[in-house]
Design goal:
The structure holds two protein chains of two kinds. Chain A is mostly helical. Chain A is built from 15 helices and two strands. In chain A, strands 1-2 form a two-stranded antiparallel sheet. Chain A is globular, with a radius of gyration of 26 Å. Chain B is 77% helix and 0% strand. Chain B is mostly helical. Classes of the chains: A mainly alpha, B mainly alpha. The interface between A and B is large, with 102 and 105 residues.
């Protein structure tokens, strides 16, 4: 706003000669109004489904079934859907499973990618450049290309319908990208730091632990959030490999438990969805800036 | 200090010091690269065992008969191509990916510009709200869309009724169902484009715009001759990357329509799941997903080219 005002103040005295300058000011104000209108339209579009999700989750079954009401607002809010989910059925089990799988995947991913990224960024060896490219290419391989052969493999390993198969499979999606961003962060650390550490007699693990990890902490945070998001949201692998309710994670559990034939318990489905969306929403609310910085590192020119 | 340089660049300084300890240095270098290799072994295991190997196994599987007892060559691929349903799958995958990515890129571009024009202190709040669709796992948020599109309780139809429009069978009619799956994908993916473009916009130096303004450029000319050339590379990377991800999508279509009505919204991922896992024809399912490979490989080549060009630019 101050920019607009300054431009206007500068332009005003010279109005007759440079009428174009005055129009820039008006143009800017209209641009700003247009910007807010566009933002409002898209915010409404983007927030409508979560809003409706929340409203439905607060309704009783009777209120949902009553077609004469406005479906967008809740008249007598109730927490019975949440209560029912948390106290009966297998929703808590699914939530716990999601937490177990996600935390294990994040831990495994970070160990694998930190070691590999350190080696690829700093300790060149035969084929390391090719391998770095290969890591990036692997990131581009979607899981829809691989789930059928993996179905056979997991079956023959005896891990079909086993939660731990997810911990085995999720790193294939998370490790390549995490390694890739960590290579970027590690490469940006000045070589002088390694040299100083070497002179002080540090070995490579001490160098990784005492220098690289602390210095690249924002990158590590971004990679961790990525691994968390992907593991929490993964849908295809649980859909293919998990069939019994006690092994399921949230993404598949909500649907499979709350839809019996033609009966949809929409209130409970939406309550379950809200609670399942909460962990990633909370993480982003606090750590969004780190994640975006890590993700867009390639988009900004250094 | 010396061993830090010896492998990367043949700098003259270390050589001058080296002669006396050449043997020790070489041994150190060897040990260093061995250690480096050991550190990448877990990565190699994951990639080799769970990505590369399954890929070749998929090719093998796709050439077997349904009961996996006999080698049938390319029969599965030929059979699929002759099926009308599969031709629809190919067409729908292309419509879905191209339609959704174009819309996502456009919306992302507009939103990035709009956000960039805001005063800095309001930006964070708006950006946070606009990122919500991208933060909720799509398998979860698609449930909300499914409910919004419900045939008898659709809240969208309630609004349409309010303005006097007839209700729409969102997921029951092929045309609308195709629109619905694209809409949900756009809703989920547009924020990603927005933050990528916003970051790119912020990195365009202000001097360029000032210079353009002095030369009398209009807003449109600034966009055309300053912004777009500066963002060309990042636009290419995000569009190509998103084409890959969208083309290989699974969750949105699976939850929203499960391929229906009459297989009109099936894309490769969901059709492969239906054929391979639900109907138990593993080889045919493997063949369905392998049909994605040529397109994905081509896109990946372009992504790789743009990414390496970008890193060269950044290094230089």
């Amino acid at each position: 706003m101050s920019v607009t005002a300054a431009a206007g103040a500068a332009a005003a005295p010279a109005a007759p000669l440079y009428r174009k300058v005055g129009s820039i000011r008006r143009e800017r104000r209209w641009a700003l109004i247009g910007a807010y209108v566009a933002l409002a339209v898209f915010v409404v579009f983007f927030l409508t489904p979560p809003f409706h999700m929340l409203m439905t989750s607060l309704k009783s079954s009777a209120e949902i079934a009553d077609l004469s009401n406005n479906p967008w607002i809740v008249r007598s809010p109730t927490l019975e859907n949440y209560w029912a989910l948390l106290n009966h059925g297998s929703y808590p089990r699914h939530f716990l499973n999601s937490v177990i799988v996600t935390l294990s995947t994040v831990a495994i991913t970070m160990v694998i990618s930190l070691l590999a990224a350190f080696a690829l960024a700093r300790m060149r060896f035969w084929g390391s450049a090719t391998l770095a490219t290969g890591v990036f290419l692997t990131y581009l391989v979607p899981e829809t290309l691989l789930f059928i052969p993996l179905f056979q493999t997991i079956g023959s390993l005896g891990l079909y319908n086993n939660l731990w198969a997810m911990v085995l499979l999720y790193p294939t999606i998370t490790v390549p990208f995490c390694t890739w961003i960590m290579i970027g962060y590690f490469s940006s650390i000045p070589k002088e730091l390694d040299e100083a550490a070497l002179i002080d007699g540090a070995n490579h693990f001490q160098m990784l632990w005492k220098i690289f990890i602390p210095v690249a902490l924002p990158g590590i945070l971004a990679a961790t959030i990525f691994a968390f998001t992907v593991s929490w949201a993964q849908f295809l692998y649980p859909m293919v490999f998990l069939v019994s309710s006690e092994q399921m994670v949230l993404t598949v559990g909500i649907v499979s438990d709350l839809i019996r034939g033609d009966t949809f318990q929409w209130g409970m489905i939406m309550a379950g969805a809200i609670m399942a969306a909460l962990p990633p929403l909370l993480i982003y609310a606090f750590l969004m800036d780190y994640y975006i910085a890590g993700l867009t590192a390639g988009a900004t020119k250094g | 200090m010396a061993d830090g340089n010896v492998l990367t660049a043949p700098a003259p300084a270390p050589v001058a010091v080296a002669p006396a300890r050449t043997g020790a240095l070489r041994r150190l270098a060897r040990r260093r690269s061995t250690l480096a290799f050991v550190m990448t072994v877990p990565l190699l295991t994951v990639i080799g065992g769970l990505v590369v190997w399954p890929f070749f196994y998929a090719i093998y599987l796709s050439m077997l008969n349904k009961r996996m007892t006999r080698f049938v060559g390319l029969d599965n691929f030929a059979f699929l191509l002759s099926r009308e349903t599969f031709q629809l799958v190919i067409m729908q995958s292309v419509i879905f990916a191209v339609g959704a990515v174009v819309a996502k890129a456009l919306i992302g571009f507009i939103l990035a510009h709009v956000l960039h024009a805001l005063p800095a202190k309001g930006q964070r709040k708006w950006r946070g709200m606009l990122l919500v669709p991208w933060v909720i796992p799509p398998a979860i948020s698609t449930l909300a869309w499914w409910w919004l599109f419900d045939p008898s309780y659709s809240a969208i139809n309630w609004l349409l009724m309010g303005i006097g429009a007839p209700p729409v069978a969102w997921l029951g009619e092929p045309g609308w169902a195709r629109f619905a799956v694209i809409l949900v994908n756009v809703w989920y993916g547009a924020p990603f484009f927005m933050i990528m473009y916003l970051a790119a916009l912020k990195s365009v130096p202000d001097q360029l715009y000032e210079a353009a303004a002095i030369d009398g450029a209009t807003g449109w000319q600034k966009l055309r001759y300053v912004t777009l050339p500066m963002m060309k590379n990042i636009i290419a990377i995000t569009v190509l990357f998103s084409l890959i991800v969208t083309f290989a999508n699974f969750d949105i279509v699976r939850i929203l329509t499960n391929g229906g009505p009459q297989d009109r919204t099936h894309i490769f991922g969901t059709y492969a799941f239906q054929v391979g896992i639900q109907s138990g024809d593993i080889p045919l399912g493997a063949a369905v997903s392998l049909f994605m490979f040529p397109v994905l490989a081509l896109l990946a080549v372009f992504v790789l080219r743009d990414v390496s060009r970008r890193s060269k630019e950044m290094a230089g």
